[in-house]
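Exercise: predict the fold of this chain.
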Amino acid sequence: MDQNGSQTQPHAGGHETGGPKVHPYRLAVEGALRLHNLADPDRLLAQVAEVLRSVIGRCQGVVVVRQDGKDTSHPFGGLEAEGARSHQVAVAIDKAIESGTPVVDGAGPQRHVAIPLGAGNRRIGALFIGVADLENRLGSGYLDLLSLLGRHIGLALDNASHVQDMALVSAVGAEDVIPTGLSLRESKRLFERRLIRTRLRESRGNIASAARSLDMDRGQLSRLLKKHGIDKSEFKNSPRG
């Protein structure tokens, strides 16, 4: 206990320290801030493993980013690429993304959990990580800690992707030009996002009006807003023109 009678928490990262113990949630928030300061998705993904190690100690797993129905796996902690793409991992990740809640897989030393990576109401991927040691250190609270990290990782990735899109637009200096060097899939995604934002700006955030101009129904447009992380409220006060 500390001098105020409060129970001190073990250092989640498992580092040897001679000073006060550091609460794992504080480490998680500090790590999340580091991620939010990165505007490059590749650099951010490389940093995720470092953040996880600083919060929970040695760990092994994979971060899966789902974009336009395609999964990209980023193993860390020595996990082999084949293991990261195994059927068992894929099933747990699919369940976590679809349900928006953690999915516990396995038992004992092989216990893993898939944590959805969230960005608002959108699920843009999942973190699959071994938790046997983590559960021993933190008890049942390990799921809350990982869920917190999952939300921040998802938000940071979504923001970094948005910043990257905007940088591509700025590089060419024109709203109606698709930058060179992009794949067909990336070009379509960028064009679709810009077109939707343009129509929402013209309709001042009116979903029905924007949908009509795009020859689709409100439901279709609403799904596209979620896909691209677009908030209609930011266009309510847009000037017409």
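Check your answer against the key: The CA atoms of residues 193 and 241 lie 19 Å apart.
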